[in-house]
Write a structure and sequence with these properties.
Layout (H helix, E strand, L loop, with lengths): L2 E6 L10 H11 L8 E7 L2 H8 L18 H15 L6 E7 L8 H13 L2 E7 L2 H15 L4 E2 L1 H9 L13 H13 L8 H27 L1
Parallel strand pairs: 3-4, 4-5
Antiparallel strand pairs: 1-2
Helix pairs in contact: 3-4, 4-5, 7-8
Length: 225
């Protein structure tokens, strides 16, 4: 298994760029630090190294938003697809998990639909994980065109995890947003005859993880006593 990351901040395609994208390009030309349109972490099987790269601060300040709070989803989608096309084997299961927290750049819907079709034709499974339910519903036609799944909304799940820090994140994991995304990813990695068992695999693994977490908590309590 190899994983890479595409951080997307501004649109790359000239026809989709708005003022902030062009300003970011100018800052890049002046070699100003931490300004980028997309920032790639190449595919790797070294997950500790990957996490270290992901922990690096990539934003110069809070004033780095795009298109009045929108997401440059087209840049993220295209960048991720290009990363897979350049670095992955064609006979391997290839998955894009496209995570976003807002509506796409104005005027980019047609481009997103085109990318969804290209990914589908290339056999790349694309799962959209979107923060808000209303935005996820608006983006579901793109998700359906890409892989036949609706976009998944994760905001309520994140809020519930934050409000109850003691709760195991693995309880009923297969029914929750991140579990649904994991099931699609696992299904893409299984032989076609077994692709309907992605949820079952996630349920089994999350059960083991939940049990391990509870055992660890119990052990820590005993040590404190």
């Amino acid at each position: 298994v190899r994983v890479g990351v595409c951080y997307y901040r501004h649109e790359v395609r000239p026809e989709l760029q708005v003022d902030c994208c062009r300003e970011a390009m100018e800052r890049m030309r002046r070699n100003e630090p931490l300004h980028f349109l997309v920032d790639m972490v190449p595919l790797t099987g070294n997950f500790n190294q990957l996490l270290q790269s992901m922990n690096e601060d990539r934003l110069p300040s809070s004033n780095t938003g795009h298109d009045n709070g929108r997401s440059a989803l087209a840049a993220g989608f295209e960048g991720s697809f290009d990363l897979l096309q350049r670095m992955s084997r064609r006979d391997a299961a290839r998955v894009i998990l496209l995570q976003g927290d807002a509506n796409p750049t104005r005027g980019s819907t047609d481009a997103l639909m085109t990318m969804a079709g290209l990914a589908n034709e290339a056999g790349v499974v694309t799962v959209l994980l979107i923060r808000d339910k209303a935005t996820a519903e608006r983006l579901s036609p793109i998700a359906q065109a890409a892989a036949g799944y609706d976009a998944i909304s994760y905001r309520k799940d994140m809020e519930s995890l934050k409000s109850d820090g003691a709760a195991s994140p693995f309880v009923n994991f297969e029914e929750r947003p991140f579990g649904l995304a994991a099931a699609h990813i696992v299904a893409a990695s299984l032989p076609s005859d077994y692709a309907d068992r992605g949820t079952t695999v996630v349920r089994i693994v999350s059960g083991h993880l939940s049990a391990a977490q509870e055992a660890s908590r119990a052990s820590n309590v005993m040590r404190r006593r």
